Amino acid sequence: MAVLVACALGVAALLLLVWANARAAITIAVAEVRDGKLEITRGGLSPRVVSDMRDIVSRPRIKSATVRIVRAKDHARVEVAGDVPEQQLQRLRNVVGTLPLAQLVKATRR
Q1: How far is CA 91 from the centre of its chain?
Q2: If pLDDT is split at 50, 70 and 90, which confidence band does 91 have?
Q3: pTM above the 0.70 mark?
Q4: How far is CA 20 from CA 6, 13, 17, 71, 74, in A?
């Protein structure tokens, strides 16, 4: 019985690891919002997108939120955790959703 429980826990841990890696693979960028200030904590976005997002979170000021931009089929999708009014959430979606992925992601090639 102990072997069965150990195997079940091992499979559960493996599935959690696979899920976390798949989630990280589709994430374009993660940004933290604190007192109306946006900071990119992971990934990269084009300066135009970052500027537009900073304007959105500063007026009216969002106290605290996490904004995750992930790849969807042919576009990017915005996921927000925190207390963000629906109007500002829609504005964030509009900024991210209007650009193709190639223009959204920060170019690192020279």
Answers
A1: 15
A2: very high
A3: yes
A4: 21, 11, 5, 15, 22
Q: Structural domain tally of the chain?
A: 1
Q: Which domain holds residue 58?
A: 27-104
R_g of the chain computed on alpha carbons: 18
**Could you give the C-alpha distances from 21 to 15, 25, 49, 100, in angstroms and in order?**
10, 6, 26, 24
Judge whether 14 lies within some domain.
Answer: no
Most confident of 13-22, 30-39, 91-100: 30-39
Contact 41, 31 (CB under 8 A): yes
Residue 61 lies in a domain: yes
- Structural domain contains residue 51: yes
